[in-house]
Specification:
The protein is of the alpha+beta class. The chain has helices spanning 18-28, 76-86, 133-151, 169-184, 193-201, 246-255, 264-267, 282-293, 300-323, 335-352; strands spanning 36-40, 48-54, 57-63, 96-100, 110-114, 211-213, 222-225, 228-235, 242-244.
Length: 355
């Protein structure tokens, strides 16, 4: 029974030229030969991800979404450089194989990396896969352990000095995401004025422990061992990695974490099986992270509220493309309800310190 992430037909409007990709791969990766077949992974709303099978060698190709306005979050060259530097010291990330900024090949810059085999969880557990409550808890602990490990990587030693400056990181993040929301706002979107004002007023000082932050760390961005599913074997999607505040990274991660007893307006934004019996709560993950790292999480309201707002901006940016006809992908239409649910959740956090 199929429980691993499976690629299928390429969505209309997101096709890429197999012959052009084959010529690029043969020129840049030694030992490749044979016919090429390209399929597309169906999940995800950001960068487009394809499975490339060339003569039995399977690779993953990543390119920006069609019609994307955001440059920094879809910088294929930067993500490739991050993986190049990171893979030797953090083998959980996939090995990058080739990159090009020549848009004449498929219409956008792209890079190719090794395919990590295993299970990637989506909204609900697939048929044929189950977790006992103990296994679910162990998976949550492993997820938190690995985030703490990412935060412990020596950026300078890894050659990741180019990744970003920690000074003013929180301020840049708050100001930057507010600007992105205002630019992507549509007439049916909530205004977020109260939340944006609160984030600007409550910004903490720069951390004295800046570190590598993944910036999109979540359960469906990790790969699980097919025979031992509570074991994580890979971490994906490093396009937004930078140097910054580790609690911002944790707040972003917990913004995705929907528990089984959360209200309905949160349930509609659940994209991972974080509600299964035995799964740790947000509070339990927060306490466990604090225990593992020694970092104080006393004023975590700010980081969680920011994570919720940031997630709303990401959803709104994607919805903006659908609303304005830049893409016709109907998967994007319900995202406006996700944005509204995140606005309600963030409001609850800033009004009542709710986690």
């Amino acid at each position: 029974m199929q429980i691993t992430d499976k690629a299928g037909h390429v969505r209309p409007g997101e096709e890429i030229d197999p012959a052009a990709v084959k010529a690029f791969l043969q020129k840049n990766i030694k030992g490749l030969s044979g016919d090429i077949n390209i399929t597309q992974f169906p999940s995800g709303y950001s960068n487009l991800t394809y499975l490339v099978d060339m003569g039995g060698t399977k690779m993953v190709l990543r390119r920006p979404p069609v019609g994307a306005k955001v440059k920094a979050g879809h910088d294929m060259g930067r993500e490739y450089r991050v993986l190049k530097a990171l893979h030797p010291v953090f083998p959980y990330c996939p090995e990058p194989l080739a990159y090009t900024d020549d848009t004449s090949i498929i219409g956008a810059p792209f890079f190719v990396m090794e395919k990590l085999s295993g299970i990637i969880l989506r909204k609900d557990l697939p048929g044929g896969l189950s977790f006992s409550p103990d296994q679910a808890r162990k998976l949550c602990m492993s997820l938190t352990d690995l985030l703490a490990r990412i935060h412990s990587i020596d950026i300078k030693e890894a050659g990741l000095d180019f990744i970003g400056k920690p000074e003013g990181y929180v301020r840049r993040q708050v100001k930057g995401w507010i600007g992105r929301y205002n630019r992507a706002k549509t007439e049916d979107a909530p205004d977020f004025d109260k939340i944006m004002s609160w984030l600007e007023a409550e910004m903490p000082e720069d951390t004295d422990r800046p570190c590598l932050v993944h910036n999109d760390y979540k359960l469906d961005n990790v790969v699980l061992d097919s025979s031992w599913p509570e074991k994580i074997t890979g971490v994906l999607d490093w396009e937004m990695a930078t140097c910054g505040n580790p609690l911002m990274d944790l707040g972003n991660a917990l913004a995705y974490w929907v528990e089984k007893d959360d209200p309905e307006y949160m349930q509609i934004m659940r994209t991972m099986p974080t509600n299964i019996p035995g799964a740790m709560t947000r509070r339990e993950i927060l306490d466990y992270y604090e225990q593992k790292t020694g970092l104080s999480t006393e004023k975590f309201d700010f980081y969680y509220a920011f994570g919720l707002f940031r997630l709303a901006v990401i959803a709104q940016q994607i919805y903006y493309r659908y609303f304005n006809g830049i893409t016709t992908n109907k998967r994007f239409a319900p995202l406006i309800h996700v944005v509204k649910g995140l606005e309600k959740t963030a409001t609850r956090v800033i009004e009542s310190s709710w986690l």
